[in-house]
Structures are given as structure tokens and as C-alpha cells.
Amino acid sequence: MSSEVRNRRGAAHILAAFAALLCITAVAGAQGDVSGQISLIERQGADRSDPGTAVVFLEARGRVEPQGAPRPVLRQTTIAMTGREFVPHVRTILAGGSVAFPNQDPFSHNVFSNAEAGPFDLSLYRRGVSRSQTFARPGIYPIYCNIHSRMVSFVIAVPNPYVATVAADGRFMIANVPAGTYVLHAWHEHAGGPVTREIVVPATGLPGQHVVLDARAYVAAPHLNKFGLPYAATRADRY
Ligand SMILES: [Cu+2]
């Protein structure tokens, strides 16, 4: 083989590799990051809420091309019961995914929710036992224990995997969002229902989203037990 032919073949290979790279760049270019800042407004003198427990997610308007598989943790995750607390306090999951609730305390706990989207009751179980619940429908599910009224957590079941991690200072980022029109939802347990806004995400992404969540009306109040009654009123029903 002459050196000229070798050179031509080499050049063809480089061209092919370059074309492939362009192709990948074009696909990757169709998705960008959506980012911004959550601000929690609170009453003067109120205990500070943790913006890090806010949840920001996108609901697609119309069809978006999925970009790869969602993170496995969005399909199956865990909220432990330990030290009479649900840990972590807030979990986000894809609708249809499941959450395991292992009991790590040396006494029994219950797990229930009266959420409109799908009430459930995993009944009572001991240390070392774990039971799971599937969250079929998107929604906000407050999770309680029927014995310990202070045990509270939230499962947020979202319609697609475009979910932000919110930092303790309220900054958030949703990575790799395909270009399109979405409703941005921002939720915090102290701010009532989610705040929503429509956004158009270009292929280059959409930074600078500032979302204000108003927690000024929040008052810490006891919730009801699984029978819809105050906890103290059903002492006889305790396990
Ligand atoms: Cu409990």
C-alpha cells in the first residue's frame, strides 16, 4: 500500500470519527439544564424552614423524547424509620415506583397515608422488617405513623424524571431536559400547594428560574391519625 493510500484512508477514518462526534453533539445539544433559585418567605420570628427539602420538577406539555433511562433511585427508594423519625423527610419518586420503609427501631411502627392520590396502610411491623408501597399516581403523599404522631415524611410522586436536587441555600438544577414546553412545579411542605409556571426550555437549557414559595401562612398543627381522629382521642386503638 502506498503511503498516499494510507494517508487517504487515515483521513477518511478521521472524517468518519468527526462526523460521529458531530452527530452525538447534535443529540446532546437538544437537551439542557433548567436551573434557578427557590426563595422561601417566612413570617418574622418563625422557625427557619429548610429550603433543601423543597422539590422542583417539570411536567411535560405534550410529548418529549426521553433521554436515556431515569436514575434507578427514582423507581425504587427507601425511607427508614429510625429514632422515631422517617429518614429522609422528603423523597421524590417516579409515579409507578415504590418506596421501602424498613423499621430500624427496637419497637414497632406503622406507615400510612391518607393522600387523595392513593391512601394506604402498611399496618404495624417490628424491627428488621421492611414493607413497600407503590405510588401509582403522581401526587404529594404525606406519610405518617399511627403510633408516633411526630413521625412525618413526604413522598412526591412525579410524572417524569425531570426532578431537581435542591441545595440547602435553595439553588436547584434539573439536568438534561429535552427542549420543549413544561410546567415547572415547586413545592415545600410549609408553603401549601405547589407553585407552578409554564416554561419553554430551549436546546441550550434555561437558567435563572427564580421561584418564591410563601410559607408565611404556615402554622405547625397536629395531623389526624389513620382513623381521621386526633391521636389522643384514640388511645384505646393504640397497638
Ligand atoms: Cu412509629
Give an overview in words.
The protein is globular. The protein has a single domain, classed as Cupredoxins -  blue copper proteins (Immunoglobulin-like, Sandwich), CATH 2.60.40. The longest helix is centred in the N-terminal third of the chain and has 26 residues, at 3-28. The N and C termini lie far apart (86 Å). It is built from one helix and 17 strands. By secondary structure, it is mostly beta strands. Strands 13-14-1-17 form a four-stranded mixed beta sheet, with no helix packed on it. The site of copper (II) ion has 5 residues, from loops.
SSE blueprint and pairings:
Layout (H helix, E strand, L loop, with lengths): L2 H26 L2 E11 L13 E6 L15 E3 L1 E3 L2 E3 L2 E5 L2 E6 L6 E5 L6 E6 L4 E6 L3 E6 L7 E7 L6 E2 L4 E8 L1 E8 L7 E7 L4 E9 L25
Parallel strand pairs: 1-17, 3-7, 6-12
Antiparallel strand pairs: 1-14, 2-15, 4-5, 7-10, 8-9, 11-12, 13-14, 15-16
The protein binds copper (II) ion.
Task: Give the low-pLDDT segments.
Answer: 18-29
Q: How much of the residues is beta strand, in percent?
A: 35-45%
Task: Indicate the radius of gyration in whole angstroms.
Answer: 24 Å
Largest sheet: 4 strands, mixed
CATH arch. level architecture: Sandwich
How would you spell out the order of helices and strands? HEEEEEEEEEEEEEEEEE
Please tally the β strands and state the result.
17
Give the overall pLDDT as a whole number.
86
Distance between the termini: 86 Å
Strand order, sheet with most strands: 13-14-1-17
What count of domains describes the coordinates? Answer: 1
Which overall shape is indicated by the principal axes computed on the Cα atoms?
globular
Bound molecules: copper (II) ion
| CATH topology title | Immunoglobulin-like
What class do helices, strands and sheet pairing give? Answer: mainly beta
The level of helicity is 10-25%
Superfamily at the CATH H level?
Answer: Cupredoxins -  blue copper proteins
Question: So how many helices?
Answer: 1
What is the CATH level 1 assignment?
A: Mainly Beta
